[in-house]
Amino acid sequence: MPWTTTYEFGEDFEDLRRDRKRASAFEQELVREVSAGHPLHGRSWTVIALAFAQDEVVVESDDEVALVHLTWRRGPEPLPWPSTEFFTSAKEFGAATTDRY
């Protein structure tokens, strides 16, 4: 079971795991921005949360979780955009986001 299944996002995030309609809007923008060569390109992933303070979304793919900074350009971005940071555990994610927000 991935750690995100039971993870409780803090007040700096909007949990989108139960709001597929809203999550889908962010997923569509991410699809537009990710170009060939990006670590998320060609992979199946789901937006599970939105960071309020930044244009960042938390995405989950198989057993990986990433924080992705959307640009809202509405088209393919040159690498390394959208910037993407991967996390392997709830502890690692919590430490990184506590320092960030």
Counting DSSP H or I runs of 4 or more residues, the number of helices is 2
How do the SSEs run, as a string of H and E? EHEEEEH
Summarize the main sheet. Answer: 5 strands, antiparallel
- On the 0 to 100 scale, the average pLDDT is 92
Number of β-strand runs = 5
What is the topology, as strand order, of the major beta sheet? 1-2-3-4-5
Q: Which value, in Å, is the CA radius of gyration?
A: 13 Å
What is the approximate shape?
Answer: globular
Alpha-carbon distance between the two ends? 27 Å
Domain count, please report it.
Answer: 1
Question: What share of residues are in beta strands?
Answer: 15-25%
Structural class: alpha+beta
Low-pLDDT parts are none
Can you walk me through this structure?
A hairpin with a 2-residue loop joins strand 3 and strand 4. The protein has one domain. It has a 5-stranded antiparallel β-sheet. It is built from 2 helices and 5 strands; from the N terminus they run βαββββα.
